[in-house]
User: Fold this.
Amino acid sequence: MDLRYKADPPNIFEMTAISPTRPRRRLSLRQQDARTAWLLVIPSLVVILGVALWPIIYTFILSFYHAPTGINQVRTFVGLGNFIEMVKDQTFWETIGRTMYFTVASVGLEMVLGMAIAQLIHFHPWGWKFLRFCLIIPWAVPTIVNGAMWRWIYSADFGALNSLFMQLGLIKHYIPWLTLPNLAMPLVILADVWHMMPFVALILQAALATLPIELDEAAAVDGANAFQRFWQIRLPLLRPAILVALIARTVDAFRVFDIVYILTSSGPANKTLTITYLTYLNSFPWGKQGIGAALSFLISIFTISMALIFIRFLYRPEETQ
Amino acid sequence: MMVYLKLLRKLLLFLFTLPVFFFIFFPVLWLFSASLSTQVELFAIPPHWIPQHPTLQNYLDIIFPSLATSSVPRTYAVALINSIKIASAVTVISIGIGSLAAYALVRIPFRFNRTIQLGIIATRMIPEVSLILPLFIIASSLRLINKPIVLIVTYMSFALPYAIWMMAAFFQTVPIELEDAARIDGCTRPGILFRVVLPISVPGLVSTAMFTFLLAWDEFFYALIFTSTLAAKTAPVAIAEFVGRYAVNINGMMAGGIIAALPPVILALIFQRYIVSGMTAGAVKG
Assistant:
């Protein structure tokens, strides 16, 4: 009989441990590491479970209840009642459409303008470093300050837009811009584009700067014109950066609230009412917490599915540096 | 001939940058100029693009409020201080506990590591509006409404995942050989983290702190729901409250807007070389 095989197989982790004085009772290095890892992770984990995971579950449960706010108000289980009430409401569908309008228009404009500016910087015109520096300013301005600023720019009594158009001779008297039903949303979009276009431009510009310039030059030698070089060389290579910017902006734009709140407060006549704003109205001023929870659950579904796409594109090991 | 063509091209490109500069600067410069003017000049027709009688009074009213100043600038100063306190506390706590978690997630293999990582990205994507009802219900039952602590805690829901994610990206760039060397020299895991990894990640810590501060400073939704009195009201809420009304001191609030925009703009300009990595790490602002 070979006695060697009766002995415990050697633990490779123990063998690498430093000074294994009592090998049998000592935790292996890997176990020790795992224990340390949990100690390091637990404070953050507790906070995240407390302020994010648990509330989102609570929201989900709340969406099945009729839950009016106020003292002595009783919650009653209504099953899918809130969701049914929600989809039957004409305002809900109009709001979804309007939110899509905002998302597509503002993200679209931000992508196109951001790309154009990134390309412009790429050709290094005079002062391109200064331009790149200045692009940070609109992005860093707090959203509420940005909204307030544009509200004053659009002001009917003293706004810069009226002043500018008047001096250019485009208008004869001051116009209350934000009260015009068909112009309110485009004006909100313009304010958002000013704020977030630099975000797209800076991401794309940084990606563009890492592309090998030889590719461009080789294509030029082969007779590709400027447009071909953009469409067939730079654009395909920018795909990952475009996706990052596009998805980040889409997730963000879909849940727009701050800028609408401060610019138009969803008016005139609900022309700028977005889905997050409707959720806010239901949850707080109107005191219909059940409907509010159902709506916010819907927003979460959309955002999380966008997040999943985001992870799929971003979380590929070969792309992680 | 080639030289002229090249010069022409440069000139043409430069001409394209002008509308971009105009678009970036027109709104802020107008706001700045208006914040330096008096009410009378602001309403002047035709407009005074550059104030004829510039005054710093609007700024002085906010920074050094006296008993004579009206309530708007006086309360605004308090809101600014609240903002500074809350954003600083959020930044310190997020970095403090977030960097520990980030290190463990990046460098220590353990069960559920990947699950936790994915959970943190998902948390980053949950909109504030989906968490607000439960948070509000609990905060009111604990009588925490209008207390700064409620904002510090709720801001963790977006600041902490963001800080973890950004710190993780920085820790990934620390060469693993360095850790192995420390280990061979007898360093424990916590020793490696505190004596090797954290000291060389100081630039990462600083830029993560800057971004976290920016996020907390920018936050509006939670602040709107949880605060209404001066005890905890932040600068964005103070501005929003004012903007809706057609009241006395518009220029004063314009100065207030400039002051609220200054800390993030200055921070972002100082740390501009970290901006893009921060943007892609966090990807979503607000």
In short: The CA atoms of residues 69 and 211 of chain B lie 34 Å apart. Chain B touches chain A through 100 residues (CB under 8 Å).
